[in-house]
Write a structure and sequence with these properties.
The structure is a single chain. This protein is mainly alpha-helical and 492 residues long. The longest helix has 32 residues.
C-alpha cells in the first residue's frame, strides 16, 4: 500500500507541492505566534456576562465588538477553556480558509502553474499587518477570509451562472460585514458587480434566471439591513466611528494601508507606492473600459476572462466610491489601515490579473513584473515578521514579563501587590493577572497623565518620556522593558 501512495504523491504537480508546503509553514508560524504573543490591549473584549443576544445587537456600541468574532470567541472560551488560544482560534481558522480559497482563486484565474504559485504567495505575504490579524482576537481575520470566499464564488458564478454560487457569494459577504462593519463596502461592491454585469453584458439568461438573481440580491440586502441596522446605529451613536480618518481618502485610507498595512516607514519608496496605488486603478479602469468597448464594436459576447477582469476592477473601485459618498453625504469618516485591509487584497488581485491578461503580447515583461512583485512582497514580509510581538500593539510584548518580574521580586509574599500602570497596559495586565497571578495583585490602576508618585502603590510602570517626573526619593528604577521604551519603578 505504501508504494502506491508514494507513487500518487510523486505525481502531484511540483508547484502544488510548493503551495502545500508554503501553506503549512505559514499556518505553523501563525500557530506559534498565537501561543507566544501576549494578549494585547484591544483583545480583551470577552466578558462572561455578555450574552449572545447583547453581542449580536451590540448594545454597548463598542467598535471592538466585531460581532461574528465575538460570538464565536464566546462559544470557544465557554466550551473549551479561557486561555489565549481559544481567544484567537477563530483567526487561525480564518487564515486556513484564506489559504485554501486564495489558492482556489489563483487556480481559477491563472491557467499557468507558475502564475498560480507566484500569485498565491503574493496574496499571502502582501501585508504583514494582515498576517498579524491571523493570530489575534479581532474580527478582521474572519472578515477578510469571508470576503475571499465570496470572491471565489462570484468568479465561479460568472463562469457557470448557477444561482447557488451567487447565493454562497452573498452569504459569505453578509458574514464578513457581521465580523467588521467596514466590509459593508465590499457587500455594496458585490451588489454593484452583479447589477452592472447584468446591465452591460449581452443577456444570455432567461427571465426565470434573472428573477432568481434579483431574489438573491433583494433577500441579501433586506436581511443585512435588518440585522446590521441596530448594532451599526449603536456604534455610530457612541461616537466610535470618530476614530477613523478625516483628511481624505488618499491621505487616510491609501496612505495608512501602505504605511501600516505594508509596514513601510515614511520614505521616497513608500510615497512612490502610494502614488502607484492611487494611479493604477485609473489605468486599470481605462484598460477594461477599452476591452469592453472593443467587444461591443465587434458585436461579440465578452468572454469570461474579460468579465473576470471587469468584475475584479469593480470590486476595487466601488468600495472607494462608496466610502467617498458616505463621507460626503453622511459625514462618515474614511476607513484607515486595519478597517480597510480588504483594499490590499482587491488591489493585488487586480494588478496581477491585469498583467496576466496582457501576457500574450509581452510574456517576458508580464512574468517579470509578477516575479518582482512576489520577491518584493516576500522580502518585505520576512523582514517584518516578528514571532514575539505584533506590529500595532508592540508595547504589549513584555506585559507578562513585567508582572513576572514584580511577582518574583516582591518580598512580602503575604500581601497583594499594588501597581499603577500607564493606561495602555491596564486591560492586558488585568487579563494576565486573572490568568497567571490572580492572588498576587490588586486590580491595576490606570495612569492617564504624569506619574503622581503616590506611595500607596508598590510599583509604577510608565513610558520613558515620563521618567524625569518620577520622585527618585520615593521610587527607584527597577527594570526597562520593550526595548527600554517603558520603565518599571519600585517603591523604596
Amino acid at each position: 500500500m505504501f508504494p502506491r501512495k508514494q507513487k500518487y504523491f510523486t505525481r502531484l504537480p511540483f508547484t502544488l507541492l510548493l503551495e502545500i508546503l508554503f501553506s503549512v509553514s505559514l499556518a505553523a508560524v501563525n500557530f506559534y505566534r498565537i501561543l507566544n504573543i501576549p494578549i494585547t490591549i484591544d483583545e480583551n473584549g470577552y466578558e462572561p456576562e455578555y450574552t449572545y443576544i447583547s453581542l449580536l445587537r451590540s448594545t454597548l456600541g463598542y467598535a471592538n465588538n466585531h460581532i461574528l468574532h465575538s460570538v464565536i470567541r464566546k462559544w470557544f472560551i465557554e466550551t473549551f477553556s479561557d486561555n489565549v488560544f481559544f481567544y484567537r482560534v477563530d483567526s487561525l481558522i480564518a487564515q486556513i480558509l484564506f489559504l485554501f480559497f486564495s489558492l482556489l482563486i489563483c487556480r481559477h484565474l491563472f491557467k499557468n502553474k507558475w502564475w498560480q504559485l507566484c500569485a498565491f504567495i503574493t496574496l499571502n505575504t502582501i501585508s504583514p499587518l494582515v498576517f498579524d490579524f491571523w493570530g489575534l482576537s479581532r474580527g478582521y481575520a474572519l472578515s477578510l477570509s469571508l470576503m475571499t470566499i465570496s470572491i471565489f464564488y462570484l468568479l465561479k458564478y460568472i463562469e457557470e451562472r448557477r444561482i447557488f454560487l451567487l447565493s454562497f457569494s452573498f452569504a459569505a459577504a453578509f458574514l464578513s460585514v457581521f465580523s467588521n462593519f467596514g466590509y459593508i463596502n465590499y457587500f455594496i461592491a458585490l451588489t454593484g458587480v452583479v447589477i452592472i454585469q447584468q446591465l452591460i453584458f449581452k443577456k444570455t439568461n432567461d427571465k426565470n434566471h434573472l428573477q432568481k438573481e434579483l431574489a438573491v440580491l433583494l433577500i441579501s440586502i433586506i436581511a443585512l439591513t435588518l440585522l446590521i441596522e441596530e448594532p451599526l446605529r449603536n456604534v455610530y451613536q457612541r461616537g466610535e466611528l470618530a476614530f477613523l480618518g478625516t483628511t481624505g481618502f488618499i491621505n487616510d485610507t491609501i496612505s495608512s494601508l501602505v504605511r501600516e498595512g505594508l509596514f513601510l516607514p515614511e520614505s521616497l519608496f513608500s510615497r512612490s507606492v502610494i502614488w502607484f496605488v492611487t494611479v493604477f486603478p485609473v489605468i486599470g479602469g481605462c484598460f477594461w473600459l477599452f476591452v469592453y468597448y472593443r467587444n461591443n464594436v465587434r458585436g461579440r459576447e465578452t468572454p469570461k476572462e474579460e468579465r473576470y477582469g471587469i468584475a475584479l476592477f469593480l470590486l476595487l473601485i466601488i468600495p472607494a466610491i462608496s466610502i467617498l459618498l458616505q463621507h460626503a453625504l453622511l459625514g462618515v469618516n474614511f476607513l484607515v489601515a486595519r478597517t480597510a485591509l480588504f483594499f490590499i487584497i482587491l488591489f493585488i488581485l487586480n494588478f496581477i490579473y491585469l498583467i496576466y491578461y496582457i501576457r500574450s503580447r509581452v510574456p517576458k515583461i508580464a512574468f517579470g513584473l509578477l516575479l518582482v512583485t512576489t520577491l518584493l512582497t516576500g522580502y518585505n514580509f520576512v523582514s517584518k515578521l516578528n514571532l514575539n510581538r505584533t506590529i500595532l500593539w508592540w508595547f504589549d510584548s513584555d506585559d507578562l514579563n513585567v508582572l513576572t518580574r514584580i511577582a518574583n521580586e516582591w518580598e512580602n509574599k503575604n500581601e497583594k501587590i499594588k501597581v499603577k500602570a500607564y493606561w495602555l497596559f491596564t486591560a492586558s495586565f488585568r487579563y494576565d493577572i486573572n490568568h497567571f497571578y490572580k492572588n498576587r495583585f490588586y486590580p491595576v490602576e490606570a495612569l492617564s497623565g504624569p506619574p503622581d508618585n503616590d506611595t500607596t502603590f508598590d510599583y509604577y510602570y510608565i513610558p520613558l518620556s515620563d521618567v524625569s517626573l518620577m520622585d527618585t526619593a520615593k521610587f527607584r528604577q527597577d527594570t526597562a522593558f520593550v526595548i527600554s521604551g517603558f520603565i518599571l519603578y519600585r517603591k523604596k
